[in-house]
Protein backbone atom coordinates (compact mmCIF):
# COMPACT_ATOMS: atom_id res chain seq x y z
CA UNK A 1 0.00 0.00 0.00
CA UNK A 2 2.89 2.35 0.69
CA UNK A 3 3.09 4.98 -2.04
CA UNK A 4 6.29 6.82 -2.83
CA UNK A 5 5.49 9.52 -0.27
CA UNK A 6 3.93 7.31 2.39
CA UNK A 7 6.61 8.23 4.89
CA UNK A 8 7.07 11.84 3.86
CA UNK A 9 7.71 14.12 6.81
CA UNK A 10 5.44 17.10 6.09
CA UNK A 11 6.66 20.67 6.73
CA UNK A 12 3.67 21.29 9.02
CA UNK A 13 1.21 19.09 10.87
CA UNK A 14 -1.77 21.06 12.26
CA UNK A 15 -3.44 19.42 15.28
CA UNK A 16 -7.18 18.80 15.33
CA UNK A 17 -7.37 16.32 18.18
CA UNK A 18 -10.21 14.86 20.20
CA UNK A 19 -10.15 17.79 22.63
CA UNK A 20 -10.52 20.31 19.79
CA UNK A 21 -13.35 18.28 18.23
CA UNK A 22 -15.13 17.86 21.56
CA UNK A 23 -14.86 21.60 22.27
CA UNK A 24 -16.30 22.46 18.86
CA UNK A 25 -19.15 19.95 19.24
CA UNK A 26 -19.95 21.25 22.72
CA UNK A 27 -20.36 24.78 21.35
CA UNK A 28 -22.30 23.61 18.28
CA UNK A 29 -24.73 21.66 20.49
CA UNK A 30 -25.20 24.68 22.76
CA UNK A 31 -26.69 26.56 19.81
CA UNK A 32 -24.64 29.66 20.73
CA UNK A 33 -22.11 29.63 17.98
CA UNK A 34 -21.32 33.24 17.08
CA UNK A 35 -19.13 35.61 19.14
CA UNK A 36 -20.09 35.04 22.77
CA UNK A 37 -18.73 33.64 26.03
CA UNK A 38 -16.08 31.41 24.42
CA UNK A 39 -14.58 34.41 22.62
CA UNK A 40 -14.58 36.43 25.85
CA UNK A 41 -12.89 33.57 27.72
CA UNK A 42 -10.32 33.10 24.93
CA UNK A 43 -9.45 36.82 25.05
CA UNK A 44 -9.05 36.68 28.84
CA UNK A 45 -6.85 33.58 28.71
CA UNK A 46 -4.73 34.81 25.78
CA UNK A 47 -3.91 38.02 27.63
CA UNK A 48 -1.61 35.98 29.91
CA UNK A 49 0.63 35.49 26.89
CA UNK A 50 0.98 39.26 26.34
CA UNK A 51 1.73 40.48 29.87
CA UNK A 52 -1.94 41.00 30.74
CA UNK A 53 -2.73 43.37 27.89
CA UNK A 54 -6.28 43.77 26.61
CA UNK A 55 -7.06 41.23 23.91
CA UNK A 56 -9.60 41.53 21.10
CA UNK A 57 -10.34 38.43 19.03
CA UNK A 58 -11.10 38.68 15.31
CA UNK A 59 -11.56 36.31 12.38
CA UNK A 60 -7.95 36.27 11.08
CA UNK A 61 -4.47 37.65 11.57
CA UNK A 62 -4.93 39.84 8.52
CA UNK A 63 -8.10 41.30 10.06
CA UNK A 64 -6.15 41.93 13.27
CA UNK A 65 -3.58 43.98 11.35
CA UNK A 66 -6.15 45.81 9.21
CA UNK A 67 -8.45 46.70 12.12
CA UNK A 68 -5.49 47.86 14.21
CA UNK A 69 -4.33 50.24 11.49
CA UNK A 70 -7.92 51.51 11.11
CA UNK A 71 -8.28 51.95 14.87
CA UNK A 72 -5.05 53.97 14.92
CA UNK A 73 -6.50 56.25 12.24
CA UNK A 74 -3.94 55.25 9.63
CA UNK A 75 -5.16 55.67 6.06
CA UNK A 76 -4.67 57.51 2.76
CA UNK A 77 -1.57 59.72 2.71
CA UNK A 78 0.13 57.70 5.44
CA UNK A 79 3.15 55.44 5.10
CA UNK A 80 3.89 52.36 7.17
CA UNK A 81 7.40 50.91 7.28
CA UNK A 82 7.23 47.12 6.80
CA UNK A 83 9.65 44.38 5.82
CA UNK A 84 9.34 43.09 2.28
CA UNK A 85 10.59 39.74 3.58
CA UNK A 86 7.28 38.61 5.08
CA UNK A 87 3.94 37.11 4.17
CA UNK A 88 1.99 39.45 1.87
CA UNK A 89 -0.62 40.02 4.60
CA UNK A 90 1.73 42.43 6.38
CA UNK A 91 1.74 44.86 3.45
CA UNK A 92 -1.79 43.99 2.33
CA UNK A 93 -3.16 45.26 5.65
CA UNK A 94 -1.47 48.60 4.98
CA UNK A 95 -2.93 48.85 1.48
CA UNK A 96 -6.37 47.71 2.67
CA UNK A 97 -6.65 50.84 4.83
CA UNK A 98 -5.49 53.03 1.93
CA UNK A 99 -1.98 53.67 3.27
CA UNK A 100 1.30 52.85 1.50
CA UNK A 101 3.84 50.28 2.64
CA UNK A 102 7.47 51.47 2.64
CA UNK A 103 9.78 48.49 2.52
CA UNK A 104 12.87 48.39 4.73
CA UNK A 105 15.58 45.74 4.57
CA UNK A 106 16.19 43.01 7.13
CA UNK A 107 19.06 41.91 9.36
CA UNK A 108 20.71 38.80 7.94
CA UNK A 109 20.71 36.84 11.20
CA UNK A 110 17.16 37.25 12.49
CA UNK A 111 15.50 37.85 9.08
CA UNK A 112 13.69 40.75 10.82
CA UNK A 113 13.60 44.52 10.21
CA UNK A 114 16.99 46.20 10.39
CA UNK A 115 16.54 49.19 12.74
CA UNK A 116 19.03 51.30 10.76
CA UNK A 117 17.10 50.63 7.56
CA UNK A 118 13.87 51.55 9.34
CA UNK A 119 15.32 54.85 10.56
CA UNK A 120 16.46 55.63 7.01
CA UNK A 121 12.98 54.87 5.60
CA UNK A 122 11.11 57.37 7.80
CA UNK A 123 9.59 60.37 6.01
CA UNK A 124 7.18 63.14 7.00
CA UNK A 125 4.33 60.82 5.95
CA UNK A 126 5.36 57.87 8.10
CA UNK A 127 2.62 57.00 10.58
CA UNK A 128 3.72 53.61 11.87
CA UNK A 129 6.34 50.87 11.89
CA UNK A 130 5.22 47.26 11.51
CA UNK A 131 7.92 44.86 12.71
CA UNK A 132 7.22 41.22 11.86
CA UNK A 133 8.52 38.61 14.30
CA UNK A 134 9.29 36.30 11.42
CA UNK A 135 9.59 32.54 11.97
CA UNK A 136 8.95 33.11 15.70
CA UNK A 137 12.12 35.13 16.32
CA UNK A 138 11.42 38.51 17.97
CA UNK A 139 12.32 41.61 15.96
CA UNK A 140 14.86 44.02 17.50
CA UNK A 141 12.21 45.80 19.58
CA UNK A 142 14.87 47.16 21.94
CA UNK A 143 16.15 49.28 19.05
CA UNK A 144 12.92 49.80 17.12
CA UNK A 145 10.87 51.23 20.00
CA UNK A 146 13.24 54.17 20.64
CA UNK A 147 13.22 55.01 16.91
CA UNK A 148 9.41 55.02 16.92
CA UNK A 149 9.29 57.16 20.06
CA UNK A 150 11.79 59.64 18.69
CA UNK A 151 9.62 60.17 15.57
CA UNK A 152 6.23 59.87 17.30
CA UNK A 153 5.25 56.74 15.35
CA UNK A 154 2.91 53.93 16.31
CA UNK A 155 4.36 50.43 16.39
CA UNK A 156 2.10 47.61 15.21
CA UNK A 157 3.72 44.22 15.84
CA UNK A 158 2.94 41.49 13.35
CA UNK A 159 3.25 38.60 15.80
CA UNK A 160 1.31 36.20 13.57
CA UNK A 161 4.19 33.69 13.68
CA UNK A 162 5.39 34.34 17.21
CA UNK A 163 2.93 33.27 19.94
CA UNK A 164 4.97 33.23 23.14
CA UNK A 165 8.21 34.67 21.73
CA UNK A 166 9.97 37.26 23.87
CA UNK A 167 12.89 39.68 23.98
CA UNK A 168 14.58 40.42 27.28
CA UNK A 169 11.74 38.61 29.03
CA UNK A 170 9.07 40.85 27.48
CA UNK A 171 6.62 38.95 25.29
CA UNK A 172 6.03 39.98 21.69
CA UNK A 173 2.69 41.71 21.36
CA UNK A 174 3.51 43.65 24.55
CA UNK A 175 5.91 46.20 23.04
CA UNK A 176 4.03 48.28 20.48
CA UNK A 177 0.70 50.12 20.46
CA UNK A 178 -0.71 46.76 19.41
CA UNK A 179 0.33 43.20 18.65
CA UNK A 180 -1.44 41.07 16.06
CA UNK A 181 -1.62 37.27 16.16
CA UNK A 182 -2.96 34.66 13.73
CA UNK A 183 -4.65 31.36 14.47
CA UNK A 184 -4.36 29.86 10.98
CA UNK A 185 -3.95 26.04 11.09
CA UNK A 186 -0.20 25.98 10.42
CA UNK A 187 0.69 28.58 13.09
CA UNK A 188 2.07 27.55 16.50
CA UNK A 189 -1.55 27.37 17.68
CA UNK A 190 -4.76 27.67 15.72
CA UNK A 191 -8.50 28.24 15.87
CA UNK A 192 -9.15 26.93 12.32
CA UNK A 193 -9.02 30.61 11.31
CA UNK A 194 -8.75 33.52 13.69
CA UNK A 195 -6.73 36.41 14.98
CA UNK A 196 -6.08 38.45 18.14
CA UNK A 197 -5.03 42.01 18.85
CA UNK A 198 -3.25 42.84 22.10
CA UNK A 199 -2.97 46.39 23.40
CA UNK A 200 -2.22 48.17 26.65
CA UNK A 201 -4.61 51.00 25.69
CA UNK A 202 -8.22 50.41 26.81
CA UNK A 203 -9.52 53.09 24.40
CA UNK A 204 -7.82 51.36 21.45
CA UNK A 205 -9.24 48.02 22.62
CA UNK A 206 -12.74 49.51 22.69
CA UNK A 207 -12.34 50.97 19.20
CA UNK A 208 -11.20 47.54 17.97
CA UNK A 209 -14.27 45.91 19.55
CA UNK A 210 -16.49 48.44 17.80
CA UNK A 211 -14.72 48.05 14.44
CA UNK A 212 -14.99 44.26 14.41
CA UNK A 213 -18.76 44.42 14.99
CA UNK A 214 -20.34 47.05 12.73
CA UNK A 215 -19.38 49.85 15.13
CA UNK A 216 -21.75 48.53 17.81
CA UNK A 217 -21.29 47.85 21.50
CA UNK A 218 -25.03 47.88 22.22
CA UNK A 219 -27.03 46.18 19.48
CA UNK A 220 -28.36 48.65 16.89
CA UNK A 221 -26.74 51.60 18.65
CA UNK A 222 -23.99 51.93 16.02
CA UNK A 223 -21.36 54.47 17.01
CA UNK A 224 -18.95 54.31 14.05
CA UNK A 225 -18.66 52.54 10.69
CA UNK A 226 -17.35 49.06 11.34
CA UNK A 227 -16.83 45.73 9.65
CA UNK A 228 -17.85 42.19 10.55
CA UNK A 229 -14.59 40.57 11.58
CA UNK A 230 -15.93 38.63 14.55
CA UNK A 231 -14.53 35.31 15.70
CA UNK A 232 -17.08 32.53 16.21
CA UNK A 233 -17.47 30.79 19.56
CA UNK A 234 -16.67 27.50 17.79
CA UNK A 235 -13.29 28.87 16.70
CA UNK A 236 -12.64 30.37 20.16
CA UNK A 237 -13.38 27.04 21.86
CA UNK A 238 -10.80 25.34 19.63
CA UNK A 239 -8.36 28.19 20.25
CA UNK A 240 -8.75 27.77 24.02
CA UNK A 241 -7.88 24.08 23.80
CA UNK A 242 -4.83 24.88 21.70
CA UNK A 243 -3.73 27.72 23.99
CA UNK A 244 -3.56 25.26 26.90
CA UNK A 245 -1.18 23.09 24.89
CA UNK A 246 0.92 25.96 23.55
CA UNK A 247 3.58 25.99 26.33
CA UNK A 248 4.30 22.28 25.88
CA UNK A 249 4.30 22.55 22.08
CA UNK A 250 6.65 25.53 22.21
CA UNK A 251 9.10 23.65 24.43
CA UNK A 252 8.97 20.74 22.00
CA UNK A 253 9.67 23.07 19.04
CA UNK A 254 12.62 24.54 20.94
CA UNK A 255 13.94 21.09 21.83
CA UNK A 256 13.60 19.98 18.19
CA UNK A 257 15.52 23.09 17.12
CA UNK A 258 18.25 22.38 19.64
CA UNK A 259 18.62 18.88 18.26
CA UNK A 260 18.87 20.11 14.65
CA UNK A 261 21.24 22.95 15.62
CA UNK A 262 23.64 20.38 17.03
CA UNK A 263 23.32 17.91 14.17
CA UNK A 264 23.10 19.84 10.91
CA UNK A 265 26.18 20.48 8.82
CA UNK A 266 26.53 22.20 5.46
CA UNK A 267 23.69 24.68 6.06
CA UNK A 268 23.50 27.82 8.21
CA UNK A 269 21.29 27.01 11.20
CA UNK A 270 19.06 29.84 12.51
CA UNK A 271 20.97 32.22 14.82
CA UNK A 272 19.19 33.46 17.96
CA UNK A 273 19.82 37.01 19.16
CA UNK A 274 20.97 37.66 22.73
CA UNK A 275 17.98 37.90 25.06
CA UNK A 276 15.64 36.50 22.40
CA UNK A 277 13.26 33.64 23.03
CA UNK A 278 12.68 32.01 19.64
CA UNK A 279 9.50 29.92 19.37
CA UNK A 280 10.43 28.36 16.01
CA UNK A 281 7.23 28.78 14.05
CA UNK A 282 9.72 27.85 11.35
CA UNK A 283 13.19 26.37 11.58
CA UNK A 284 14.77 28.18 8.69
CA UNK A 285 18.25 27.42 7.43
CA UNK A 286 20.22 29.16 4.71
CA UNK A 287 21.40 27.18 1.72
CA UNK A 288 23.83 29.43 -0.11
CA UNK A 289 23.75 27.55 -3.44
CA UNK A 290 21.04 25.71 -5.36
CA UNK A 291 18.41 25.97 -2.64
CA UNK A 292 15.65 24.67 -4.91
CA UNK A 293 17.71 21.62 -5.88
CA UNK A 294 18.43 20.92 -2.21
CA UNK A 295 14.72 21.13 -1.49
CA UNK A 296 13.98 18.61 -4.24
CA UNK A 297 16.68 16.22 -3.05
CA UNK A 298 15.29 16.39 0.48
CA UNK A 299 11.85 15.58 -0.88
CA UNK A 300 13.33 12.58 -2.71
CA UNK A 301 14.55 11.41 0.73
CA UNK A 302 11.09 11.86 2.25
CA UNK A 303 11.77 15.16 3.99
CA UNK A 304 9.28 17.92 3.18
CA UNK A 305 10.38 21.53 3.47
CA UNK A 306 9.08 24.94 2.45
CA UNK A 307 10.32 28.31 1.24
CA UNK A 308 8.92 31.28 3.16
CA UNK A 309 9.00 33.37 1.03
CA UNK A 310 10.32 32.83 -2.47
CA UNK A 311 9.18 36.26 -3.68
CA UNK A 312 9.67 39.33 -1.46
CA UNK A 313 6.50 41.43 -1.20
CA UNK A 314 7.96 44.32 -3.22
CA UNK A 315 8.25 41.93 -6.20
CA UNK A 316 4.64 40.70 -5.99
CA UNK A 317 2.30 42.05 -8.67
CA UNK A 318 0.22 44.41 -6.49
CA UNK A 319 3.40 46.10 -5.24
CA UNK A 320 5.12 46.68 -8.58
CA UNK A 321 5.23 50.18 -10.00
CA UNK A 322 2.98 51.38 -12.81
CA UNK A 323 5.69 50.29 -15.23
CA UNK A 324 5.35 46.73 -13.95
CA UNK A 325 8.78 46.83 -12.30
CA UNK A 326 9.67 46.83 -8.59
CA UNK A 327 9.96 50.25 -6.99
CA UNK A 328 13.33 51.87 -6.21
CA UNK A 329 13.85 49.70 -3.12
CA UNK A 330 17.36 48.73 -2.05
CA UNK A 331 16.82 45.46 -0.23
CA UNK A 332 19.90 43.29 -0.73
CA UNK A 333 19.43 41.16 2.41
CA UNK A 334 15.78 40.62 1.53
CA UNK A 335 16.71 39.45 -1.97
CA UNK A 336 19.43 37.16 -0.64
CA UNK A 337 17.15 35.64 2.00
CA UNK A 338 14.48 34.92 -0.63
CA UNK A 339 17.09 32.98 -2.62
CA UNK A 340 18.61 31.09 0.33
CA UNK A 341 15.99 30.25 2.96
CA UNK A 342 14.62 26.77 3.49
CA UNK A 343 12.31 25.86 6.36
CA UNK A 344 12.66 22.31 7.67
CA UNK A 345 10.00 20.44 9.66
CA UNK A 346 10.10 21.51 13.32
CA UNK A 347 6.52 20.89 14.49
CA UNK A 348 5.99 19.38 17.96
CA UNK A 349 4.59 16.09 16.69
CA UNK A 350 7.92 15.05 15.10
CA UNK A 351 9.25 11.80 16.52
CA UNK A 352 12.88 11.31 17.45
CA UNK A 353 13.20 8.98 14.47
CA UNK A 354 11.84 11.68 12.15
CA UNK A 355 14.26 14.25 13.56
CA UNK A 356 17.10 11.82 12.93
CA UNK A 357 15.91 11.29 9.37
CA UNK A 358 15.79 15.06 8.77
CA UNK A 359 19.36 15.50 10.05
CA UNK A 360 20.71 12.57 8.04
CA UNK A 361 18.99 13.77 4.86
CA UNK A 362 20.11 17.39 5.20
CA UNK A 363 23.68 16.39 5.96
CA UNK A 364 23.80 13.98 3.04
CA UNK A 365 22.37 16.50 0.58
CA UNK A 366 24.31 19.53 1.80
CA UNK A 367 27.64 17.75 2.17
CA UNK A 368 27.33 16.22 -1.27
CA UNK A 369 27.55 19.71 -2.85
C1 LIG B 1 -0.16 34.16 8.86
C2 LIG B 1 0.37 35.53 8.81
C3 LIG B 1 -0.46 36.65 8.68
C4 LIG B 1 -1.92 36.57 8.42
O1 LIG B 1 -2.66 35.76 9.27
P1 LIG B 1 -4.01 35.10 8.71
O2 LIG B 1 -4.64 34.55 9.96
O3 LIG B 1 -3.64 34.05 7.73
O4 LIG B 1 -4.83 36.18 8.11
C5 LIG B 1 0.11 37.91 8.74
N1 LIG B 1 1.44 38.06 8.85
C6 LIG B 1 2.28 37.01 8.95
C7 LIG B 1 3.74 37.26 9.11
C8 LIG B 1 1.77 35.71 8.90
O5 LIG B 1 2.62 34.67 8.98
SSE topology sketch:
Elements: H1 18-30, H2 37-46, E1 54-58, H3 61-71, E2 79-83, H4 89-96, E3 100-104, H5 115-121, E4 126-129, H6 141-151, E5 154-158, E6 166-167, E7 170-171, E8 178-182, E9 195-199, H7 202-212, H8 233-263, E10 276-277, E11 283-286, H9 291-300, H10 332-340, E12 341-344, H11 352-367
Parallel strand pairs: 2-3, 2-4, 4-5, 5-8
Antiparallel strand pairs: 1-9, 6-7, 6-10, 8-9, 11-12
Helix pairs in contact: 1-8, 2-8, 3-4, 3-7, 8-11
- Morphology call: globular
Q: Name the CATH architecture of the largest domain.
A: 3-Layer(aba) Sandwich
Uncertain spans: none
Helix content: 25-40%
- Classify the fold: give the CATH topology of the largest domain: Aspartate Aminotransferase, domain 2
Organism: Plantactinospora sonchi
Enzyme class: transferase
EC number: 2.6.1.-
Cofactor: pyridoxal 5'-phosphate
What structural keywords apply?
about 375 residues, alpha/beta, Aspartate Aminotransferase, domain 2, Aspartate Aminotransferase, domain 1, 2 domains, seven-stranded mixed beta sheet, three-stranded antiparallel beta sheet, 11 helices, about 35% helix, binds pyridoxal-5'-phosphate
Concise account of the structure shown:
The protein is 37% helix and 13% strand. It has eleven helices and twelve strands. It has helices spanning 18-30, 37-46, 61-71, 89-96, 115-121, 141-151, 202-212, 233-263, 291-300, 332-340, 352-367; strands at 54-58, 79-83, 100-104, 126-129, 154-158, 166-167, 170-171, 178-182, 195-199, 276-277, 283-286, 341-344.
Provide structural commentary.
- The mean pLDDT is 96.
- Strand 6 and strand 7 form a beta hairpin.
- Strands 1-9-8-5-4-2-3 form a seven-stranded mixed β-sheet, with helices on both faces.
- It is of the alpha/beta class and 369 residues long.
- The protein is built from eleven helices and twelve strands.
- Helix 1 (18-30) packs antiparallel against helix 8 (233-263) and helix 2 packs parallel to helix 8 (233-263).
- It is 37% helix and 13% strand.
- The protein folds into two domains: 18-241, Type I PLP-dependent aspartate aminotransferase-like (Major domain) (Aspartate Aminotransferase, domain 2), CATH 3.40.640; 246-368, Aspartate Aminotransferase, domain 1 (Alpha-Beta Complex), CATH 3.90.1150.10.
- The chain is globular.
- It has helices at 18-30, 37-46, 61-71, 89-96, 115-121, 141-151, 202-212, 233-263, 291-300, 332-340, 352-367, and strands at 54-58, 79-83, 100-104, 126-129, 154-158, 166-167, 170-171, 178-182, 195-199, 276-277, 283-286, 341-344.
- Its EC number is 2.6.1.-.
- It is an enzyme of class 2 (transferase).
Amino acid sequence: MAGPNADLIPPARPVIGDAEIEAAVRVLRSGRVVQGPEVAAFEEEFSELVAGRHCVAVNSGTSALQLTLMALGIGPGDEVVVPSFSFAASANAVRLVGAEPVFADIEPDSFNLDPDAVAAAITSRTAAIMPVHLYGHPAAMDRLMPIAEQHGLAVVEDACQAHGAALGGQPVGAFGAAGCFSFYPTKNMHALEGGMVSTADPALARTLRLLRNQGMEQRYANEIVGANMRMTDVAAAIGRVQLRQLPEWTEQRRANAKFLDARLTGVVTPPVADAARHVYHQYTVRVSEDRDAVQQELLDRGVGSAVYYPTPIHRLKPYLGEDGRPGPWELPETERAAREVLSLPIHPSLTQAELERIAVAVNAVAVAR
